[in-house]
Amino acid sequence: MTKLTINDLVGTPQTAIANLILDYYAELGMDDHQLAIFLQIIKYSQKDEKFPTPTELAKVVKRPISEIYQALQQMTQKGFIRVKSFIDHDQHVDQYDIAPFFERLDHLLDSQDTVANFQAEQADVSKLYQEIEVEFGRTLSPIEMETVDSWLNRDHFSTEIIRLALREAVLNDARSFKYIDRILLDWQKRQIKNADDLERYRAKFQ
């Protein structure tokens, strides 16, 4: 099928977009509570409010604010949304980006026979976020979650190599995203892409 892009959806009737979401959100692993919040984020975006607060979302979906925070974190971890930050007229601006959901929807529509693998990948990504939080001993900030998302989707680091870099940071008692990022970049330069590559590289210096 033709690749589904956000630009394509801009001119699509809202009912058609809503039907796409309603037809496939459950297959993508989104629950009803997350769906309600996701639809509200889209609604706010249409009013040019790109970053509704958890308080605003809690008011319209009639849920406790603590559940909103948790749902937003889960939606980021599962790859439904991401937080984008930029400077606009010398001011720091955050906004929710819903493109990841439609990228995953496109993948699902284009490869129905690989749904099981896709869901396994998303579960692995979600597990990676949880493992990082366990090692850091706290919930990740939106910026930190965006960093992990960039490692996965911009830099195309595998969950395996990110886990290895996390382990390296923990062993060196350097629980820092900057430290992990430096490890990943160094390994990338050395063509280290998995545990076998790392083992062979280290064997050269033993």
TrEMBL record:
<feature type="domain" description="DnaD N-terminal">
    <location>
        <begin position="17"/>
        <end position="112"/>
    </location>
</feature>
<dbReference type="InterPro" id="IPR036390">
    <property type="entry name" value="WH_DNA-bd_sf"/>
</dbReference>
<comment type="similarity">
    <text>Belongs to the DnaB/DnaD family.</text>
</comment>
<protein>
    <submittedName>
        <fullName>Primosome component related protein</fullName>
    </submittedName>
</protein>
<dbReference type="InterPro" id="IPR006343">
    <property type="entry name" value="DnaB/C_C"/>
</dbReference>
<dbReference type="InterPro" id="IPR034829">
    <property type="entry name" value="DnaD-like_sf"/>
</dbReference>
<dbReference type="Pfam" id="PF07261">
    <property type="entry name" value="DnaB_2"/>
</dbReference>
<feature type="domain" description="DnaB/C C-terminal">
    <location>
        <begin position="129"/>
        <end position="201"/>
    </location>
</feature>
<dbReference type="Pfam" id="PF21984">
    <property type="entry name" value="DnaD_N"/>
</dbReference>
<dbReference type="InterPro" id="IPR036388">
    <property type="entry name" value="WH-like_DNA-bd_sf"/>
</dbReference>
<dbReference type="InterPro" id="IPR053843">
    <property type="entry name" value="DnaD_N"/>
</dbReference>
<dbReference type="InterPro" id="IPR053162">
    <property type="entry name" value="DnaD"/>
</dbReference>
